[in-house]
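User: I'm putting together notes for a lab meeting next week and I want to include a structural view of one of the chains we've been expressing. I don't have a solved structure, so I'd like a prediction I can at least talk through. The sequence is below, exactly as it appears in our construct file.
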Amino acid sequence: MTIRKQPNGKWLCECYPNGRNGKRVRKQFATKGEAIAFESFTMEEVNKKTVVG
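Assistant: Thanks for the context. Below is the predicted structure for the 53-residue chain, given as structure tokens.
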């Protein structure tokens, strides 16, 4: 999980909610706060889901 500033001035949030072998989620934001909020929301949503099996 990382949040970094791009050369174009936007912030990139890149995270792997299901571990490093899972699907990558990348999204750009205008502010760092938005990127942090998105990362927190994404990781919370993954933790809320229950595994039945």
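A couple of points you could mention at the meeting. The chain has one domain: 2-48. Strands lie at 2-5, 11-15, 25-29.

User: Perfect, that's what I needed.
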